[in-house]
Please model this.
Amino acid sequence: MAQEREDLIYSLARSMGMGESQKAKSSSGKYNAETGTIYSNGHMISKAAIEQAKVYFTAQYRKMAEIDDENTRQMAMLYEVAMEAIGMMLEGSSGNTGSGTPTG
Model:
């Protein structure tokens, strides 16, 4: 599960223009399920910030998914990947099995 999560995160990073050389420069992030925090590149990202990011990506996805434009749909897909990755990370730590995909 952890490898799938890391692969998903790097896939998102590559799709947003982060090349392999940048990947080598950044340290691998670690998620502490007990505290709900991420440690990455010398930063501690709080559970509240992670949840805020999921809300943001979900809102952006919902806005863009309804627009009939190919470029906008591509951006919506990237937002969807981000919100799903965050959801998978949070669900993995709490034992939830529900999908984070919006239904409306």
